[in-house]
Design brief:
Blueprint: H1 2-5, E1 12-15, E2 27-32, H2 39-49, E3 53-58, H3 65-70, E4 75-79, H4 91-102, E5 106-109, E6 114-117, H5 126-135, E7 140-147, E8 171-172, E9 177-181, E10 188-192, H6 193-199, E11 211-217, E12 223-226, E13 230-232, E14 249-254, H7 261-271, H8 282-289, E15 300-301, H9 305-310
Helix pairs in contact: 7-8
Organism: Jannaschia helgolandensis
Protein name: Glycosyl transferase family 2
Keywords: Transferase
Length: about 325
């Protein structure tokens, strides 16, 4: 928290509408950079779920992202040119905003390439879900990131920023996941999916972590440790059944593999802002930039949350 608050002057308000945040509003926080290929639908999707206000840090975009955000009536936007990696991948900046504006609110903290879904999300909004979490004494809800990909080569086809990106990247891996509980922070550590099998087969421990804790009734004393993979205090990471039964969990449909993935991979290879030890991931970005095919005969086409529940990737946990 001290490290985060030391960076608060790195943020400059572009459009501050936080006076519009009502008591009990459900908030969404994100750090973004050059996300106009997915941001319109990202905001549309989470508005429909029941987000009342978005608080977004724009990290030096040059594709119109900042202007688009500033024009949205339910979005407050800050800008910064400072390094993404040096800010703990945007977490330092969001910690400042969460402490100032999120205290006492249910807060959904996401990346722009994540679409949050949960059991009954098509019929019951976030207000109903968070009311139930309050009644059952759950201050957090976990979610697994599910990498979505096309049938053809990465980089092929086109996408419409206003439309559901899952239509163009409808496939996922249904069963190649491993999970352990980290003793230090007591959070779950899930790895697997297409990135693990395609890019990290030789060293699966380096594969991206897929488990997150994105939905939290926030307190200014809380802090994310590593992206939204874990929090302090540690008990907030108990998003799994500890005494029998299951806890409710969601899914983050991960839209990383839109057609723009090739150009973004080339850019990130030069910027080196997305991994702590960036040199170790040169082969990963080289492989992405080559436009590989992730689809296999074992790939599964997405049909909704009921399917994910049947596969054991999502749990109602009593939320009926």
């Amino acid at each position: 928290m001290l490290r985060s608050f030391a960076k608060r002057r790195q943020l400059s308000p572009l459009r501050d509408r936080t006076d519009d945040i009502a008591a009990g509003a459900i908030l969404c926080f994100a750090t973004v950079r050059n996300e106009m290929d997915r941001l319109p639908y990202f905001v549309q999707h989470h508005r429909a779920l029941g987000i009342d206000h978005f608080l977004i840090v724009d990290n030096d975009s040059d594709d119109g992202t900042a202007k688009w955000l500033a024009d949205q009536p339910d979005v407050s936007t800050w800008t910064t040119p400072h390094g993404y990696k040096a800010s703990r991948f945007g977490v330092d900046w969001l910690t400042v905003l969460l402490a100032r504006y999120g205290h006492g609110h249910w807060c959904l903290t996401l990346d722009a390439d994540e679409l949050f879904v949960y059991a009954h999300h098509d019929r019951r909004n976030l207000r109903a879900l968070t009311d139930w979490l309050d009644v059952t004494g759950r201050p957090t809800m976990g979610a697994m990131m599910l990498d979505m990909y096309p049938r053809g080569a990465l980089g092929s086809g086109a996408s419409d920023p206003e439309k559901d990106p899952i239509a163009g990247i409808p496939y996922f891996d249904a069963g190649n996941y491993v999970m352990i509980r980290q003793p230090k922070l007591q959070n779950l550590w899930v790895q697997g999916g297409p990135r693990a099998r395609a890019f990290f087969r030789a060293d699966p421990r380096r594969a991206p972590t897929l488990s997150k804790v994105p939905l939290v009734r926030w307190n200014r004393r809380y802090a994310y440790v590593s992206s939204t993979h874990s929090l302090l205090p540690r008990y907030l990471n108990h998003v799994y059944g500890r005494h029998g039964g299951e806890a409710p969990t969601g899914i983050l449909l991960h839209t990383k593999f839109l057609p723009t993935i090739l150009s973004k991979s080339v850019e990130e290879m030069s910027r080196r802002q997305h991994f702590e030890n960036s040199n170790l991931y040169d082969e990963y970005y080289d492989a992405l930039a080559s436009g590989p095919v992730l689809w296999t005969e074992a790939s599964t086409r997405y049909h909704g949350w009921q399917q994910l529940e049947g596969l054991g990737l999502l749990s109602r946990g009593g939320w009926d």
